[in-house]
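It is worth pausing here to work through a concrete case rather than discussing structure prediction in the abstract. The textbook approach is simple: state the sequence, then state the predicted structure, then interpret. We follow exactly that order.
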Amino acid sequence: MQLAHQAAISVGSLKVRPSTREVVWDGGREVLQPRVMQVLVALVLAGGEVVSRDDLIAQCWDGRIVSEDAINFVIGQVRKLAARTDAFRLETIPRVGYRLVTGNGAEPAAPKVEAAPPPRASRRRVLQVAAAAAAVATSGGVGWATWRAMRRQAAPVTIAVLPFDDLAPGEQTRFLAVGLAREVRNSLSRIAGLAVVADASSFALSAQRLTDSAIGRRLGADFLLKGSVEQAAGEVRISTELVNLASGLQVWAQTQESRGGDLFKLQDQVAGAVIQELIARIGPDRIREPPPLRRRDPEVFRIMLGANQLIEQTRALRMVNREDQGSDAADQAQDMVKRALAIDPRDPGALVVQAALVRNGWTRELARQPLSGAQRAAAAAELLRQALTADPNDPSALAALGDYYRRFEWRWDEAETLFRRALAIDPNHLEAHWAYGHQLGTLGRVLEHLEHARAMMRLDPETVWRRLDMPRALYQLGDHGGAMALYESELAANPENLFLLRELYFIHLTESDAAGLAARIRRVREDVWKGRPPPAVGALLARAAAGLEALQGRPAALIAMVDKDVAAYDTGAALAGTSQGRASVDFLFIYAMEYAWGGAVGPAIRMLDRALAGRSVYWPACLPFGYAHFPAAMRADPRYAALWRTDPKRQELVRSRLLAIEHRQMAGFLLDGRRVTPKVPLDPLSRHA
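Step two, the predicted structure:
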């Protein structure tokens, strides 16, 4: 947007003069910052229509990658202007964008634009418009969505990689300093949607010791990567930092060290760390077309087909408590991964499968390692970094890293970028749909979660743990009947599935549905198993019976069971891998639920705090404003409100869910206690609602 070419605008009593950046109203005058004026003009010219953040970035930041803080700051300045002038109001449409309205908001803003010479169009812009018009004439017309997509397609992000400084001049470090910058540039050049500045000018600019912003302006870059190499006492230390040139802020820095190790391996680690950080900052709108994937060795490809099938088997076997058979399948998968990596140590597919084995502790060897879930996940993330070093566009590695961010670090924005990149490259990628859907459900964006659940039902109707995503989404949308119908269908087909049985127990417990839980116990024990359920199913039914007694006012048996499990967890069970489809820390959330509905408020709050500290939000319906939120006695306890204020990420989660319930994106309860149940849209492509 060129402010000099924008005509003056009237919005109610407010006069907006873009060319001089002035706003004038009765009793006041102000000169706005250029970016604030650009955003204000974009919102006014929309005429009361919603303007997305992507649209604002394209119009006001020229499509550059922009931090959330930068956008929020500018929007905040527009809001302050609205409050000072009382001429308009800025509405936020969560997860969509912003709308400027005047008066009481009943009618959309209708700006009055004064006559002005038409802006000069660049030759490039004329050609773009002509090409679009030709496409319309050829195709017979395009819809509004197509025009928006054409207008919002963003240019690639540009990064300048400067030569690394040699802090301890020597032959070896000089070689490493030069070679490392070259290797990083080569690696980054493979990322879809990223343009790398890698010519002699970067060396010349670096030698002039210009400021970061000055270098960025000369090279036309969005980001600047620089670093240094130092060697002392046999140890090589490499420091790197990434600078956002739009804000001038350092957005990431890291130091890698190697004592007498392989310098080429160290170089590879540095390049991988940069890739891992950068791909989470490049949105899918930067990808013009699916990038070519790394070519794989045919034998490795064949081996990994079998390994991936074994991973699916171990998931399914563990859900029905066949832990030994699940370990057998995982051990076989591990052997196949070793064979594949012996042929190609950098094969992304093999590294992703190895990461899944490590994160979940599925093999017998990995299960014996005394590691917490967070430690296992960190080791898995290192393998994913290696996979993305080999191929920054591998959708499986992108989805797996996004899942790590959303599950263990609550870096939801970066995770969303990774999921969307994976789906832009492969729209049918099951793991990306699954993990992205879970994140959306946790944050309260359940209508979006439902879209991904439906996609998985169409793409993979055979796998039970993916099918269960559909009733989960429907349940969080308040479609109790639709969710239970699907749960019942799954139970009829998989009566030994402990994951499913435990989930049904949770639903009855958290709804305080004593009658439904009693009927469930009776049907499973008598109708399904004729009074002789398998031992694991029998143990779960006994626990459900204790939960039933708790709902009937006799919680002693359930509390005793939970106390015993918590003691076992604290003496070593926390170091176990994933069991029955749940990470070990997820059981802390489950214990909090059972304590809560057993009336033990203090232990429930302490256990919930521990679960959240471990980044477990296992049952989203129990989270704030949810369909089955914690009992009133627990929510009334000051400690419950306090635990959500102890961590900025917890506060972010609460804010996201509040916005979602206010805009009917999930079922649950508003702050004033009113219940909200959104309308679930029909899926025209499936028999599932």
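Step three, interpretation. Residues 133 and 141 are 9 Å apart (CA to CA). The chain has 30 helices and 16 strands.
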